[in-house]
Amino acid sequence: MKIRILALLLGFVLLPLSAYAEEGGIDKGDTAWILVSTALVMLMTPGLAFFYGGMVRRKNVLGTMMHSFFILCLISVQWVLWGYSLAFGPDIGGIVGGLDYLGLNGVGQEPNGTIPHLAFMMFQGMFAIITVALITGAFAERLKFSALLIFSLLWATIVYDPLCHWVWGGGWLGDLGALDFAGGTVVHISSGVSALVAAMVIGRRRGYPREPMPPHNLGYTLLGTALLWFGWFGFNAGSALAADGIAAVAFVATNTATAAAALVWIFVEWAHRGKPTLLGGASGAVAGLVAITPAAGFVGPVSSILIGAGAGVFCYIAVSILKPRLGYDDSLDVFGIHGVGGMWGAVATGLFASVGAQGLFFGNASQVGIQIVGVLATVVLATVATFVILKITDLITGLRVTEEEEVEGLDLSQHGESGYNL
Amino acid sequence: MKIRILALLLGFVLLPLSAYAEEGGIDKGDTAWILVSTALVMLMTPGLAFFYGGMVRRKNVLGTMMHSFFILCLISVQWVLWGYSLAFGPDIGGIVGGLDYLGLNGVGQEPNGTIPHLAFMMFQGMFAIITVALITGAFAERLKFSALLIFSLLWATIVYDPLCHWVWGGGWLGDLGALDFAGGTVVHISSGVSALVAAMVIGRRRGYPREPMPPHNLGYTLLGTALLWFGWFGFNAGSALAADGIAAVAFVATNTATAAAALVWIFVEWAHRGKPTLLGGASGAVAGLVAITPAAGFVGPVSSILIGAGAGVFCYIAVSILKPRLGYDDSLDVFGIHGVGGMWGAVATGLFASVGAQGLFFGNASQVGIQIVGVLATVVLATVATFVILKITDLITGLRVTEEEEVEGLDLSQHGESGYNL
Amino acid sequence: MKIRILALLLGFVLLPLSAYAEEGGIDKGDTAWILVSTALVMLMTPGLAFFYGGMVRRKNVLGTMMHSFFILCLISVQWVLWGYSLAFGPDIGGIVGGLDYLGLNGVGQEPNGTIPHLAFMMFQGMFAIITVALITGAFAERLKFSALLIFSLLWATIVYDPLCHWVWGGGWLGDLGALDFAGGTVVHISSGVSALVAAMVIGRRRGYPREPMPPHNLGYTLLGTALLWFGWFGFNAGSALAADGIAAVAFVATNTATAAAALVWIFVEWAHRGKPTLLGGASGAVAGLVAITPAAGFVGPVSSILIGAGAGVFCYIAVSILKPRLGYDDSLDVFGIHGVGGMWGAVATGLFASVGAQGLFFGNASQVGIQIVGVLATVVLATVATFVILKITDLITGLRVTEEEEVEGLDLSQHGESGYNL
Amino acid sequence: MKKIEAIIKPFKLDDVKRALQDMNIEGMTVSEVKGFGRQKGHAELYRGAEYIVDFVPKVKIEIVVPEENAQPVVDALLGSARTGKIGDGKIFISTIDEAIRIRTGERGKEAL
Amino acid sequence: MKKIEAIIKPFKLDDVKRALQDMNIEGMTVSEVKGFGRQKGHAELYRGAEYIVDFVPKVKIEIVVPEENAQPVVDALLGSARTGKIGDGKIFISTIDEAIRIRTGERGKEAL
Amino acid sequence: MKKIEAIIKPFKLDDVKRALQDMNIEGMTVSEVKGFGRQKGHAELYRGAEYIVDFVPKVKIEIVVPEENAQPVVDALLGSARTGKIGDGKIFISTIDEAIRIRTGERGKEAL
Ligand SMILES: Nc1ncnc2c1ncn2[C@@H]1O[C@H](COP(=O)(O)OP(=O)(O)O)[C@@H](O)[C@H]1O
Ligand SMILES: Nc1ncnc2c1ncn2[C@@H]1O[C@H](COP(=O)(O)OP(=O)(O)O)[C@@H](O)[C@H]1O
Ligand SMILES: Nc1ncnc2c1ncn2[C@@H]1O[C@H](COP(=O)(O)OP(=O)(O)O)[C@@H](O)[C@H]1O
After folding, report:
1. What's the whole-number average pLDDT of chain A?
2. What range defines the domain where residue B373 resides?
3. How far apart are CA A315 and CA A319, in angstroms?
4. Is the model's pLDDT at C1 over the cut of 90?
5. Rounded to whole angstroms, how far apart are CA atoms A265 and A173?
6. What pLDDT does A73 receive?
7. Which residues line ligand 1 (CB under 6 A)?
8. Rounded CA gap, A163 and A87, in Å?
């Protein structure tokens, strides 16, 4: 995406007499598309609330949904106040953005590429929100709500904002040439790895893995999947930052990889366990969405099928074979799907890129190496910082609810509400 | 918004040789954005069905959802047949539109501003629909369905259509200079005040306030909140009537105020009652959406935070302290959220406006006065007309179901259906 | 729609110096609109999952939703691999497209009309998906999952792809002048008729019609209705393939006919059975959406009301009077709504067309005849091919689950999952 | 000890609970049931077709009391659950051999 | 009076109800329960993992009848609820000391 | 035969089931109920207002056993359901006149 921003900026500089100039650089078609994409990405976070909320036990449905919903509110404000500035303010040493944009000072209607700067800011803000929300699947059904508040604020500020700067804001990773069309490293590897750290630091749910903890409402999970899939068109195709051919490439790659990943997960589970499941289809779809994210604007449809298929296989193995062996309780498989899927996607981008950039299979062997550097850097930052943030949070409020509260459920103990009165 | 329409029309008149002229005045970027916005606003009414439907008792879920859904159907047809003409037909004395557009006669593909006239008509129609639907929260769980039919038709025709004309259709309130970017007075004050009148005329639910009447499915309420938030981007940013910088301003203000209001409501309830709630977050979000509506295209992000925060505080107080003291049963707090939030928003627009118009804090003290005139005019029209309409409806069909029907629930008694067979 | 494609292509050829040419023929406003429309149409299939899923018994909710969800995945891949080529590849004798586009070979960012070819491909792909998914309502609650897999793949390839070619891909039916703006024949008649054949071949559900089989969650059904209505704006107004006046015409027609059909169904059921129902409203809305589909870009608002009203009446009669008399068990009334609504819509297009084409009431009597030819051709293809496909599927895997599995429900027997753990 | 089982109309539960509390009954167990009896079910609609649901939602209350309290409890139930319309429900009384409080192991009346 | 409690397979409820109606049994109370017995539960899947749900959905029917009707009711139940496969359920018979109709206060057989 | 009814805390069901299985109890019937007793309910919030829900979710287990097994079952229940906190629940024992297995028509102990 960074490449595209540069291209657009260049285009703007070099073509002062073009159609753009007539309207002060703003293209209304592009602006319409980015505003819509921003709305679509916003919808993903409530989508996640349902995706996650359906999978927990009935007594934790509101507590789980509240995580996503609260983060939507919290990071919306954090981003406007200081997050955007840390991520996209004038570069400081390749590491972080300066404070010039605090409170969106100086961020207005003027064009950024071919869209209003405010539109670019808001589109990016939705990415910050969902990234933080994704992590919450790791500690579902046992986190104190006050801990969520502190953890989210710190994580957004210390992990997301700088990492976003590294890749898209003019930082070192983007300069290195790492390809990340719509956020494979920034969004998925970072949240997936942080989720794993959180699951291990916070510890298992009471009763896990002895007691089965079946999803209480798979309809909610399917609804969430649908909203995620729908919103992801904005996430990926919107990352073209224009309503053009690249957006169409990314749109098609997104849909195709997602479908392929869902099919593969379904078939693998069918072969392995004897039955094709809806939750498997939903999980595979999300794995596919994750894996295609860094590659979306760089690959054609057949590569998309392969990337999706890989996501279906690798994430299925991570979730159903690796996790039980290793014994950690990442409640809703954030690592298994976003971490593993994100890493596969980042590497696969280095393998399959063919549109506007070349990967290994298209003659550019070095890209894979750069991609791996990106993955490693993200893993290191996410692991260390998340660990520290959890320890700080623990000091301030404690991380887990009491055993009694866990048995009663988060809905009643944290929020004084019940999900259903049927 | 009126200002913008004027600006666009002026632009159209004065720049006959601009890019617009090349395509007969229609800008495809703007048209794409308004078509999408129209679809988004349409989705808000089913969103409202879920927002409201989740909050009532199980036995009334379908009856409550049916209100919104039926109004979507009814006013869609009313608007096309005569509503649009009353609101946007050629001005008659600043009070109401003429009948020239009956049955959309003469409303076609020709540009209205930079979009097809039909697109403008439909966008406006979605506002008429949701305004009527909002009121239904006041008399949920006890209104006769036949009364809903008559009330809705009369209210849309006698209250909404003229009021819309006053503010946006060339009527006296717009001429006065009242700022209402996307419908604070037209939509929210009018529905909120009418809701209060309706709650008082129709009377309390059986058992209220002695018996607790907890929400039966807060997942539905969160789904509704998500769809409302999502759709409101079309409502507010679409009211720019163009895919431009102002749309981006409105988009950012909408998201920011909503998030701030939800946070504030959550924190206030946490402080006041000891627990942060999901329903509080959802209620706060809607309060924020309401309050930012008149201001959306006129304010920056920091003002948006303040407007949202005010909405969180004022609406919380109205709902949790004022309502029980006064003792009326506005079942789902239409007045407390839309009435109070709308009035605060209208006044706040007069305080904080800084983009394309000036409010008190930006040197234009007189704006607040104009805003207050707008509020008062709306309150008077809504109060008097709603009272009369209810009396007429009562004469024709009666307003309330029988006690037995109320105990059995509206789903069975009015519709012969059950919400769930689980 | 075919007419519009031609017009756009012509426009492109004849106006090499126009604004389009400056950007290589791609219009960003149109592209933004089609990308959004594609996302909207995609959302319809999960919408259908909820529309259908809410209507079945609790034990079959996942099995029913899985049909739509799985088809979304399966046909997404089929379309990319060979479906698009069969439908839109270079014409072979007016019957089917050539294999030139296998694996989307040669389908890229270049303009097709004013949008990238890939965008056109994907928009069309979403139509293929939902058409197959619509059929599943006919055999809900009793089909083997393995049969679904084979049936869907064969039906998409043998029925949908060629039929789509006939009407939109350069085939004989389009050449004949049949008007089908957004898929009345291609999508609705084909799926509705196939559904009837499938219902008869597969046979009734155990206990039908003796045992009542009431919907288990009408909230889901309303959610599905809302998503269908919302997504259908992309389906119909997107079929203009441009963000222009015709798109606005189609948008308004869609909303108006849908509302009118829902109102009429509600009133008819109220008169006939004494109560207005939510499911009736939802069913009527879908009937209206179906009926206006072929006509959307060709008719004005008043014609839309009439087309919608006709749909409400005819589909109500088909579902509540005809079906019980004839005794087949089309579980969720695919034939009664999509088949009957689609046929009425196709004929009504020939009656009411007045925008860009003329129907009987606007002086062109011959159009009705052409429309009827289109209907008949579709009925014949769908009937014969569906019958054969079902027989093949039966040979390979069998069609029905065992009696025991049917009693237990598809969720457990086919997927090893439960819809709810409340 | 006696077990008193009452099948009542759901919306009467609150009144019944209050009546029992007023006479210092400190424990009861409640469940949702469906009743079939003289009270007719209702018709529901499904796309223009009508079908009859003959089970009516009811609430079952179980209260175990020392024998001497049985009659007062019955009286309280009769007083609070009655609407006078068909379907008000039934009270069934049976004998409990032993009651034990799980927390303490107390038996008999002490356990109630 | 006797209380007859039958635990049956849910899909048999309709047949049982019809059989009882045919012999003029006018009242019964039904509830959803979960059974555990010889009939094995089923396996469910959760993201590639299998777990066993050992409770099986059952329906409990309670019918209070005058003693002389107990045997016919049992026979009707046996006739209508049997599929011959494991898990068909049980019938338990116990004694009811008194029955009262809430609406009228009638007692004994009159109350049923 | 005796019927043992236990009202327990829902999260103890698994432990109880295991304890009963360990002593070769092969059948039981479980239902969800709401309890009212010494254990207080909880407060819930609704838009800044607080209301009290005084019914507590409980699980009812019914086990019919030959008389001689009653005491061991009670002991197993006491051992597995107790947390020592208020609200652990009750065990009620009553007499069953007859038990019949629907599938085979077997009666008495054979039917259990
Ligand atoms: N013989 C019976 N055995 C068990 N439950 C019964 C019996 N008769 C009635 N009931 C229960 O009592 C409820 C009320 O009975 P019904 O005959 O409708 O009216 P009423 O209580 O006025 O006589 C029924 O819905 C059913 O739950
Ligand atoms: N001893 C018992 N006490 C209470 N309920 C029992 C008992 N044994 C069985 N049941 C109930 O009867 C149902 C059927 O019993 P099961 O042993 O599975 O098959 P069958 O009825 O063929 O003997 C169980 O699911 C359970 O609900
Ligand atoms: N007299 C009673 N009759 C029926 N059920 C009772 C009775 N007393 C208590 N219960 C049931 O037992 C549960 C636990 O009782 P409670 O008084 O809260 O605590 P404890 O079991 O520690 O005495 C209650 O929730 C209720 O379901």
Report:
1. 94
2. 30-413
3. 6
4. no
5. 32
6. 98
7. D 7, 35-39, 56, 58, 86-90; E 27-29, 62-64, 101-103, 112
8. 8
Dihedral sign, Cα of residue A360, residue A365, residue A367, residue A372: positive
Structure tokens at B298: 């006129």
Tell me whether residue E85 is exposed, middle or buried, using C-beta atoms within 10 angstroms of its C-beta: 0 to 12, 13 to 18, 19 or more.
exposed
Taking only the tens place, the pLDDT of each residue in A217-276 is: 999 999 999 999 999 999 999 999 999 999 999 999 999 999 999 999 999 999 999 999
Q: Which chain B residue lies closest to C280 (C-alpha atoms)? A: B415
pTM of the model: 0.96
Asked whether the beta carbons of B82 and B148 are under 8 A apart, the reply is: no
Which residue minimizes the CA distance to atom 20 of ligand 3? Answer: F87
In this structure, is residue A141 part of a structural domain?
Answer: yes
Contacting residues of E for C412, CB less than 8 Å apart: 42, 44
| Enclosing H/E stretch for B37 | helix B28-55
Residue B107 inside a domain? The answer is: yes
Tokens describing residue B332: 């789902």
**C111-112 and A91-92 beta bridge pairing:** unpaired
- B82 SS3 class: helix
Beta bridge partners of E90: E7, F101
Whether A7 maps to a domain, the answer reads no
pLDDT average, residue stretch A134-160: 98
| Amino acid letter for position E50 | E
Residue D101 in contact with ligand 3 by CB distance below 6 A: yes
- What is the rounded CA–CA span in Å between residue A343 and residue A347? 6
Q: How many CB atoms lie within 10 A of CB B336?
A: 27
**The pair of three-digit structure tokens given for residue C330, joined into one six-digit string:** 């089309």
Q: Count H helices and E strands in chain D, helices first.
A: 2, 7
Phi, psi dihedrals of residue A401, rounded to the nearest 5°: -70, 165
Q: How far is E50 from chain A (nearest CA, A)?
A: 8
Burial class (CB in 10 A: 0-12, 13-18, 19+), C298: buried
Does E94 lie at the interface with D, CB-CB under 8 angstroms? yes
Instruction: Compute φ and ψ for D98, nearest 5 degrees.
Output: -155, 150
A13 belongs to a structural domain: no
**Length in residues, chain E:** 112
The residue behind tokens 């046996």 is E78
Structure tokens at B8: 């666009």
Specify the CATH number for the domain of residue A48: 1.10.3430.10
C-beta D28 within 6 A of ligand 3 = yes
C125, C133 Cβ separation under 8 angstroms: no
Give residue C274's region: left, alpha or beta (phi > 0; psi -120 to 50).
Answer: left
Token digits for F80? 């597995």
Rg, chain C, Cα only? 21
Are the C-beta atoms of residues C357 and C367 closer than 8 Å to each other? yes
Phi, psi for A171 (deg, rounded to 5)? -85, -175
3-state DSSP call for residue E35? strand
For A111, phi then psi, to 5°, come to -70, 145
8 A C-beta contact, residue A123 and residue A34: yes
- Per residue, the 3-state secondary structure of B227-239, as one string, reads HHHHHHHHHHHHH
The pair of three-digit structure tokens given for residue C242, joined into one six-digit string:
């441009």
Identify the residue among A56, A58, A66 best suited for mutation to test binding to B, counting B beta carbons within 10 A and taking the highest: A66
Inter-residue contact C218 to B62 (CB < 8 Å): yes
Instruction: Report the distance separating Cα B54 and Cα E91, nearest Å.
Output: 40
Contact A377, A173 (CB under 8 A): yes
Q: Which percentage of chain C shows pLDDT scores above 70?
A: 94
Instruction: Please tell me whether residue F42 adopts helix, strand or coil conformation.
Output: strand
C289: phi then psi, degrees, rounded to nearest 5:
-60, -40
F65 lines ligand 3 (CB under 6 A): no
Domain count, chain A: 1
Angle CA B58–A223–A79, to nearest 5: 105
CA C231 to mean position of chain CA atoms? 12
